[in-house]
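Standup notes
- DV: blocked on the single-chain target, sequence here:
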Amino acid sequence: MKTLNIPEGYQRVMPYLIIENAPAFFEFTKNVFDAEEQYKAMRTETLIMHAEVNIGGSCIMFADATEQFNKHTAGMFIYVDDCDKVYKKALDNGAVSIMEPANQSYGRSAGVKDPFENTWWITSA
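- DV (later): unblocked, structure below
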């Protein structure tokens, strides 16, 4: 089997979101999940052609929706240190609750929909 040469800081599978107001999505991930900007290329002064954020070693790629590239959101599952704290930060940053924090067989978990229509399942192991 051929060995893959995946660049450092990337995984084999990464979400790629096409969203409206991509700059605000970066701010949301930074404020809620402590995301760090990994890369950004602009289409215009205000539209992102391609950007990447890193959250705890995982990369999420995203871009602004255009006529050529229609909006495409996702559902994501994320492990965090404190489900309740991150859930509250998400709500404070414009997300809406799908499921309040509760103990589950796999950990303490909550669900939110961010202002960009992505669903996040926030879980503490």
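- Follow-up: The chain has a mean pLDDT of 96.
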